[in-house]
Records
---
Amino acid sequence: MKRTCGVLVALIAVVLAGATPAIASEKTPSKFASSTDADLQKKIDAHIAKYGGKQVGKNQISWENPRAVMTFPAPTRSADRTALARIACQTEWFCLYEHAWSDRDGGGVLALHDYGVYYFYEYGWNDIASAWENTQTGHARGNVFDTWDGQWTYIFGGCAYDYQSYVGDLYNDKADSAALLAKC
Ligand SMILES: [Ca+2]
């Protein structure tokens, strides 16, 4: 009897350990990470060669019509790196973050500006978003979709101002497209 109890306790302990949810705050390496300024430039050059756009400043690529800006995280050995690794979303944009806000690694950001539809494959951003922030003016709406085989499934979004510091395990790394609308 005593022995059975011991086995049972051990089994419950194993089950509980297995059920522990993944913690979003764990540091995840960014797909866009670099170690030095030269390494960052190499990554940006490679991204532009594949997805077009124009380099802006040290760590951004900009596209026009519709207007979008992708920001690469600062190199790991750069002085620009702060304790709060998350890149701020500027006012009047809809931002998609590579990592949850609690993730100290920060990761990259894709910021969308104009009303209309965006296909993330055009920016090398399919299945990446883990968080979002809508800082557009006038309660403008941002809808984000997982697209598969011609089907668009709405997965998250909201009217300005709104955000999700983490979209949840079900929709994490799923987003493929977005629509920005003037009305909520
Ligand atoms: Ca997807």
---
Amino acid sequence: MKKSAQLIQSNNDECVMMNKKLDANCNSRISNHEVISMPFSSVSEAISWGAKMLLESIGDASLAERESKWLLESSAVSAGRDPLFLNQPDLTARVSSVFRSHIARRSRGEPLSYVIGEASFRGIDLFVTSDVLIPRPETEQLVDEILKLIPKAAEWQILDQGTGSGAIAIAVALERKLVHVTGIDKSTSAIDIAKKNVKRYGLENRIDIIEADIFPKEGLFDMIIANLPYVPDKVDLPKEITEWEPVLALRGGPTGMEVINRSIELSNKFLKPNGLLIYEIGEEQESGFREHWQNRFEFKKDLNNKIRFMIDRG
Ligand SMILES: C[S@@+](CC[C@H](N)C(=O)[O-])C[C@H]1O[C@@H](n2cnc3c(N)ncnc32)[C@H](O)[C@@H]1O
């Protein structure tokens, strides 16, 4: 019998653990993320319990049900089980315990990707924690724009500034087999996640991940690609973002354009002749960048018809 199950016994329909009364769901919080709990008797019981718990924060019954199912699958994986094991009628105490903890985190508003520990980006599964931004759909489009600029046979050196989870670097390296990417980030903990993701895709020989402020100590690149922080310091962001995602990934200075402008100013030293630059920017920033860089850049819209990308073709 598993330890968590041993600790709990049912006593006149009340749950007790070492003589301590537990709550109605037989839960006792023993650490931040671990909850000792009675195992659910079936997968469907667990999913409907999770959906009920999530309904208040999510507000949409079918989404709550779907998320509950995803969280149960991820709980099985976190507990070291194959998700196929969920076809069996009984759930182990360990899986039930991880699941209750995941549902509790999601109910408090933590983004699903952080709870699951993974995000999907252009079909690539990336490890994510609250140390990195959850890659956004606009950034998938940034990769489309980047790929349009790189010929298939190009053996380019590419610099990915603000690599975060490594999403852009990995997506580009997977689609352009001859390029070498250097991913830079200022955050030590983001660097750890990016390295894990690079290893996951076996790209250690073609992607270097380096902790630095925008540029490495040295290097010459054919292209600089960047999704650096660009939200102005004083612009309000939704609570779901500010409460959970890293501020270093979001705030770009008083106008939001400071980090990108610094990258452009220093780029001459790191770009080969006719080297290319491409940045993701904020939807309100076109005129600011146009004025500052005297129409040096071409601007492109995202799928929501908002200006989102800025390109200098060298
Ligand atoms: C908007 S996130 C982008 C993450 C990832 N590239 C993506 O698209 O999902 C910006 C990233 O830039 C990093 N960053 C912020 N300021 C930086 C700086 N001065 N030098 C290097 N990286 C920086 C943050 O830590 C964060 O990981």
